[in-house]
Amino acid sequence: MRGFGSGTEHARIGTMTTAQWTPTYGDPFEPVPYRPARMSEEESLATAADLRHRMDTRRTVRMFSTDPVPEQVLVDAIAVAATAPSGAHQQPWTFVLIKDEATKQRIRDAAEEEERVSYEGRLGEEWLSALRPLGTDAVKTHLTDAPYLIVVFQQRYFLDEDGTKHKHYYVDESVGIAVGMLLTALHLSGLAALTHTPSPMRFLGELLERPQNEKAFAVIPVGYPAEDCVVPNLVRKSIDQVLIRR
């Protein structure tokens, strides 16, 4: 069975060329054939079982090693995320990949300032109680320890060259699906990640000089777990608790 990111596939994908996207507002429907190769039932079952097992080992990590990771792995994972379905195929996302230590420190400083206010009362006791089993606090060392940060922005609307606005549809849903695919790709590539959502996140757009149509969605530190990494002792819901058959 071919694994995720196998050498053969990576060589093929690495040389793949794609057309540049342009807006399609008002364009007529233009169908093209889509006939992917069909897996055998045996291969399909084996692939699904292997994926389920590998994804069950995924954990959110807050203790990162400072060891470097191959940047191309993150670029490929972002490319995977960008294949996500989106409302009207508007692809309303931007991924900012950050390696610069000074920029990471500025993000951490601003995030911790917001987090202190949140943990000192803005979150409310109900939310703080929900967070308590996770062992989180206002100190966010992962923002500087992780070798990379991926800041995901959602594009609320698109601007034509003449400045005309075009609304994007189902933006939250589209970007959420893309982030899920990003986390999956990172995990299957051997990296750990965390979805960090400081509230409010307006500072990210200002700090990273993003245009007015973009709104920060999540900050995702990425790297290897630290040697002394620990995670909360949590239990996932069983398949019987999340699946209903009709």
From TrEMBL:
CDD domains: iodotyrosine_dehalogenase
Protein name (database record): Oxidoreductase
Domain Nitroreductase: 57-224
Record-linked Pfam families: Nitroreductase
Record InterPro entries: Nitroreductase, Nitroreductase-like, Nitroreductase/BluB
Coiled coil (residue ranges): none
Lineage of the organism: Bacteria, Bacillati, Actinomycetota, Actinomycetes, Pseudonocardiales
Lineage: superkingdom: Bacteria
Keyword Oxidoreductase carried by entry: yes
Residue intervals passing through the bilayer: none
Positions of the UniProt region annotated as Disordered: 1-35
Source organism (scientific name): Amycolatopsis oliviviridis
This protein's UniProt keywords: Flavoprotein, FMN, Oxidoreductase
